[in-house]
Structure of Bardet-Biedl syndrome 1:
Amino acid sequence: MAATSSSDSDSGKGESSEANSKWLDSLSDSMANIHTFSACLALADFHGDGEYKLAMGDLGPDGRQPRLKVLKGHTLVSQKLLPDLPAAAVTFLVGSHEPRTPALAIASGPCVYVYKNLKPYFKFSLPLLPTNPLEQDLWNQAKEDQIDPLTLKEMLEGIREKAEVPLSVQSLRFLPLELSEMEAFVNQHKSKSIRRQTVITTMTTLKKNLADEDAVSCLVLGTENKELLVLDPEAFTILAKMSLPSVPVFLEVSGQFDVEFRLAAACRNGSIYILRRDSKCPKYCIELSAQPVGLVRVHKVLVVGSNQDSLHGFTYKGKRLWTVQMPAAILAMNRLEQRSRGLQAVMAALANGEVRIYHDKVLLNVIRTPEAVISLCFGRYGREDNTLIMTTLGGGLIIKILKRTAVFAEGGGEAGPAPSQVIKLNVPRKTRLYVDQTLREREAGTAMHRTFQADLYLLRLRAARAYVQALESSLSPVSLMAREPLKLHAVVQGLGPTFKLTLHLQNTSTARPILGLVVCFLYNEVLYALPRAFFKVPLLVPGLSYPLETFVKSLSDKGISDIIKVLVLQEGQSTPLLSAHINMPMSEGLAAD
């Protein structure tokens, strides 16, 4: 994408000259006739040719001609009519099959239109809502000419004021009509069944099961009836449904749907609600003092713009981290991510014609434009990785390219935080306690280290004693050394006085054979006799169970039984790798005598 020399639009301290500018001017077209907002801008390589294009949901100059427009470089390459005003545009992968080209989703009215290769691919419609039974009954009476249009209007107005279920679009369109237009409207629509369907207010994407950049993503929809819907990326069925106290207008998500995710929804009641996986209702609530005009996630911080001309930083648990006052009203917000330098920042377009870039509450850069900017988008466009696309209030289009040598530094803008924000606050009690503890560790470090070493040796002594006790009292096969993965299972057969003892020894490793093992029996020689109390084990191949058989003869004629301990050792070592205690049964033969 061609670029000319940058103007002095991002002037700040030390950036009055063209050489010090961080941006290159690629395009400034005040007659582009583009009317959209940040949520309806999306950048992606739709054809897999390495050329990133800009797709936008355009409202039209008067809001009556919505279109899907696609720009390549400086040229409008296609435009398609939309049936309703667009609410959001996102790109996402619908499957893992090749070629892995992203799809484009446009939320328009009650539907989501999905395009692949910029061609229609799928249409998802929101499920119908239950209608008001009184409204349905009135339209049935109008269908049978039992009530006149004037009476129908009066009764519908009464239902709208008192009923909990809102009226359908058909009834809402009928109420403001003049008396002369009512009869024609009733005759045209009385044969149609009334339908009540909500519309989409906002949309974003959520990774399905992987966090990779090219992983499959789900669509997350916010609707006018205060619900959030998560759609399956392949079947486009509803995977999850969540309720909110108010209508969502901005969404930010992090995580993966199949693992764990967090969803932040800024709503019309001036609150931000945080939801997590498997939660049907919000877990946390952030109450703002004004209406939100933008929501951007920067790492683990939620940056919220309010109509009181201020930016606020919050954690996901609702803790306010910082506040920055703006010199003018905020018109648009979006995230700036410079991946080559690991930078994430927030962009805020103001009514005075400035675009300010902040990292937390630090001002990094200021861009001045001839006209107020109402939408922002930053990302790869054409073959440039860091491109800023802006649309203005009068329908203009501005494209800037970030220089590859540009480095955002603190104080790179016109002004820093307001003076009231640099006043030192009283240090909290926990912070003072932490500082005191640090000073104490610095002064008494030697004594604390000696105490730690003494406690560590005591812990090792107790662990050794517990180890010996486990060897002496264990009643089941226990692997004592993880470097030799062995499994031992013992079976005793017979009624006595001679028993058959079978040991099943297995190498549980995946690829390494074990050699040089011996088996030793420890028992009371007054009660039992074994032909061999010690024998070698052959080479153990991984995954196979080796039966080792021997015979045990009971010498007691009083029916006394005891425990025989089995030890598996490595040749030349005294510490057993595996041990087991076998409870021998009473000898039936000697007991009968």
Notes: Residues 5-17, 474-482 have pLDDT under 50 and may be disordered. The helical segments are 133-143, 149-162, 169-174, 179-189, 429-443, 445-473, 588-592. The longest strand covers residues 498-507. Residues 15 and 21 are 6 Å apart (CA to CA).
